[in-house]
Specification:
The protein is mainly alpha-helical. The chain has two helices and no strands. The model has no long low-confidence stretch (mean pLDDT 91).
């Protein structure tokens, strides 16, 4: 599937790059993208709630991602 904002030529280049990266390279890329998304989400929480501590930012992220309240994690 090609994203609407990506030309077919650019998509082909990206696919070739992913193929040449091999399984370990693709895993690394996926992990880096996951870390980036979490960092962006945390930045959004901090922007909306500058008064939050880091623990509260983490709690808000857990809620955003998993819809779990930290006090319910042991259940």
């Amino acid at each position: 599937m090609i994203a609407r904002d990506t030309t077919p030529e650019a998509a082909a280049v990206q696919e070739a790059a992913y193929r040449s990266a091999g399984p370990a390279g693709r895993l690394r890329i996926a992990m880096e993208l996951s870390d980036l998304v979490r960092a962006l989400a945390a930045a959004g929480v901090r922007k909306r709630h500058p008064e939050y501590t880091e623990a509260e930012v983490t709690e808000a992220l857990i809620w955003q991602i998993y819809r779990l309240r930290p006090d319910r994690l042991e259940d």
